[in-house]
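Protein modeling request. Please complete all fields; requests missing the sequence field cannot be processed.
Requester role: graduate student
Desired output: 3D structure, token encoding
Chains: 1
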Amino acid sequence: MTATPGLGAARLASPDLLRAVFRRHAAGVAVITARGDDGPVGFTATSLASVSAEPPLVSFGIGLGASSWPAVSRAGHVGVHVLGEHQEVLAGTFARSGADRFGAPTGWREGPHGVPVLDDVLAWLVCRVVARVPAGDHRLVVAEVVHGDPSGTGRPLLYHQGRFNGLRD
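Delivered output (169 residues):
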């Protein structure tokens, strides 16, 4: 059994403290996509959350300095893709600045509302953006689900301690 850290080790709030704490938090890995003026855009996100079942709403965060932010800031619809543990390379591609995210070997097609939909994911949604809420150096995007498919096979990809991982039995 692991002991809870003591209060004597508490640190004042800082970006480094937040990063250190969230490295301990395992998160599912998703890729968010949108149609941009110059073609499709996308990024890897670990901030995906279910917000409401009625109506069906999801949220995710995006940094204002992200290369995808200009397109996401104007998009009426976005794609949300839950990645499988077999997609670590894809997650890395969409996380890397300057990468050709939609070039080979990335498989994708145009989905509902012109949103790029990635191939071979565990599940995908196309969502209508309903809010972009200021949140520090990010925006919290809230979107209503309009289409989707949960029928992919495999196990989810996780992000923990700065690395992509799979589930252990």
